[in-house]
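quick one before i forget lol
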Amino acid sequence: MTRLVLVLGDQLSDDLSALRAADPARDVVVMAEVSDEGTYVSHHPKKIALVLAAMRKFAAHLEAEGWRVAYTRLDDKDNAGSIVGELLRRAEEFGAGEVLATTPGEWRLIRTLKYAPLKVHLHADERFFATRKDFADWAEGRKQLRMEYFYRLMRKKTGLLMEGTSPVGGQWNFDQDNRKAPPKKIEHEGPLWFEPDDEVAEVLDLVEERFGTHFGDLRPFGFATTRAEALTALEHFIEHALPQFGDFQDAMMTDERWLYHSILSPYLNIGLLSPSEVCAAAEAAYHRGDAPINAVEGFIRQILGWREFVRGIYLLEGEDYTSRNALGHARSLPPLFWGASTDMHCLSQVVAQTKEEAYAHHIQRLMVTGNFALLAGLDPAEVHEWYLAVYADAFEWVEAPNTIGMSQFADGGVVGSKPYVSSGAYIDRMSNYCSSCAYKVKQKTGEGACPFNLLYWHFLDRHRDRFESIPRMGNMYRTWDRMDDDKRATIIKDADAFLAKLDAGDSV
């Protein structure tokens, strides 16, 4: 009997477990562009276009490889509008009684397929270094789950940057070498972009028609939409940007959106590139002498360490993870996150970049938008939905632990041992944003004081019972306690006034 083989928009890989379990001679691949997947959050138009264009080209690739593909376009008149609806339609069309699927990367879709009125066989997604069981076995019995120790295990398992049982360079982590302030000039033009062909142009027109009201600029569009293009983008990064990536990976600069970052995560997360080949390419550059160890180790750690770790957390913690709110934050997302005017130059820069590019690098996400959201007490569920919507590389398995855990501490410390909060001093040290800001980063109170300075102490004060016993936060509270009473009272008053403006929808 014919079986259906479901391939989702973030599963565009030849080595997908569902494809390996199928038989091209008898089975039918089902791929579908459905409105449900474009609207459960208001995804950035660039993200939708990337996925749809890459899906269409992958479907053509599968057909060329001998697969029978039943492909539904978004504007097909018989489109059922949902994944399960399309499976039911195709099951009737082909007389199929079973579905082979690779386990999706979101609990929402796992649940949908599990309870579908069809017999669905969910195969493990094997496109990662660690299986779900690998992570669960490592986590069992540990009081705290910390990425650094999992990362070391993965280095040993894979042999990446290893000399026998020892790390190359004599240490596991070169992070201390990767925190340089922004340079005066970036000697790199940025990632490799691709001119839309006729097929991509058709997708862009469709996305503009259907999702034109979503936050984000659709054009210009230059993402890779095939594996061949993604591989070329990888080669471009390895040759032109990786050597400087480490030094400036945490830096932020006005009107410099790419610095030396790879912009490969969208291709990794939809399946056009595999994490193993990306890490191997970086390691090979080190062994050729083309890139220094701090750059290569830092880049590999983002993929082999952090990417694998957050996936493990997402699967381990279960379906309720995105609803957690350990700090009880409830303030609504302010208009500035959707592009409203703000005098905070750092936020203005990052949000404008996000709107135009569907991209911001990890420090912009963590220490600008994320830091502000945490300090201001924004509802983590709303923050989570924003990050999931606005970035081209955001899929829930990778986005949620980064937001709910790392950024917002809403999981109560599962991902991080302490909240990632800072005053304006950190942003000033790691960027050139502050020199162009209407606020004064050196000013702690009064007219023109940097809001991050006010909100930082306000956050620590209101959550003192939870955080003052954490060793890494003790110095902060001792500094707060050494301030005279009047200064502390002024900081709280000024922070309250700022938050009141935020609540009123006023420009800040």
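fyi The radius of gyration is 23 Å.
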